[in-house]
Design a protein that fits this description.
This protein is of the alpha/beta class. The chain contains eleven helices and ten strands. A three-stranded parallel beta sheet has the order 4-1-5.
Length: 271
């Protein structure tokens, strides 16, 4: 009898949690508390980082600040890593994710995405002096990646598809650990966002990392929980307006030294 009662209570609790999740209006909650919790990866320069004055900076940080300002609320930054972006969204630890979050079909099964607001190019890079111009040249090499990142998925699938003999993906828990492994000489091949190489090379002039070849260009979007039409519509309108008025391109240029693709700035994308 006790077991039956316990199971009944657990079922009711689970059902209640599901009902709350399904009926939640995150946009209304954000406005009611006058703040928005944004998950940002502060170890992914130049998207997110902490500078010498211990201030949070980066293109994703500035994007989140602009979003909060236009929404009329305070910004609360929640530091996240690539491996827990989806978990933090689904468990309500953050309202949205702005963390170099690329749109993939696999991720769409769990979370929703806004229109793209920026892009990230994934490349295979090496320590200076090496020449690895193709995927096939990675045979017998170890490739460092950040666990759970798009880079991880992309290089793993590419190596498997081409059946590159002896290539091994070595995973680290965050971007700082992955970068340190390459800079310190533990690893010498790196699947990484091209924009990350800019601040890494500036900080390590004697240990330069060079891009060898591109893997793919990915659109980046704001991550949202599913079944949040009000918030998704607001964010989509906000992205479109700030692409067309140049604000998002200005942020991207500041940190990445390049402009967003013309099609993206014009609001031509398929999400």
């Amino acid at each position: 009898m006790l077991r039956k009662t316990t199971l009944t209570l657990l079922f009711c609790a689970a059902a209640g949690a599901f009902s709350f999740s399904a009926s939640a209006d995150t946009l209304a909650n954000i406005k009611n508390r006058s703040s928005i919790k944004v998950g940002i990866d502060l170890g992914q320069a130049p998207f997110g980082m902490v500078n010498g004055e211990m201030k949070q900076v980066g293109s994703d940080v500035d994007t989140a600040r602009l979003l909060a300002k236009d929404l009329g609320v305070e910004l609360e930054v929640v530091s996240i890593a690539p491996a827990n972006r989806i978990q933090f969204l689904m468990t309500g630890k953050v309202d949205v994710v702005i963390a170099s979050f690329s749109i993939t079909e696999e991720r769409k099964k769990q979370v929703d995405f806004s229109y793209p607001y920026a892009v990230s190019q994934v490349v295979v890079a090496t320590t200076k002096g090496q020449k690895l111009p193709t995927l096939e040249s990675l045979a017998g090499k170890d490739i460092a990646v950040t666990r759970g990142s798009t880079n991880d998925t992309l290089i793993t699938e590419a190596l498997k598809e081409k059946n590159i003999e002896g290539a091994r993906v070595v995973r680290y828990d965050d971007n700082a650990s992955t970068t340190n492994a390459v800079i310190s000489g533990q690893q010498d091949v790196y699947a990484v966002a091209a924009s990350l190489l800019i601040p890494v090379n500036e900080a390590n002039p004697n240990n330069q990392i060079e891009s060898q070849f591109p893997l793919k260009v990915f659109p980046l979007a704001v991550g949202l929980r599913k079944n949040e039409p009000a918030l998704k519509n607001w964010v989509n309108d906000w992205v479109m307006n700030n692409l067309k008025n140049g604000e998002l391109n200005k942020i991207y240029q500041t940190y990445h030294g390049a402009s967003l693709p013309d099609d993206l700035v014009a609001g031509k994308f398929d999400n």
